[in-house]
Task: inverse folding
């Protein structure tokens, strides 16, 4: 006789691993009975359920670019140079 046991926090954490696509069942709002949507896939307001509670989504790190060139690689000829070319 095989009996099913309730998933523990450890098995639930493995199921929510990075290799799996997020689903509505992994959402913070669904797990805390705050979701009013009946969807199977993750919605735009999806936030992963975490033991620490609701955390903001990770933001991209801002990196500064290398200083660019101060002079252009090419430029249009000045008015006097154009006059000399077409004279």
Result:
């Amino acid at each position: 006789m095989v009996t099913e046991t309730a998933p523990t926090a450890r098995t639930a954490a493995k199921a929510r691993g990075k290799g799996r696509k997020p689903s509505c069942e992994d959402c913070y709002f669904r797990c805390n009975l705050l979701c009013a949507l009946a969807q199977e896939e993750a919605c735009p307001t999806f936030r992963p359920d975490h033991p620490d509670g609701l955390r903001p989504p990770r933001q991209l790190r801002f990196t500064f670019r290398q200083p660019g060139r101060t002079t252009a690689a090419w430029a249009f000829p000045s008015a006097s140079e154009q006059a000399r070319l077409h004279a």
Q: What stands out?
A: The radius of gyration is 29 Å. Residues 9-15 form the longest helix (7 residues). Helices lie at 9-15, 28-31, 79-85.
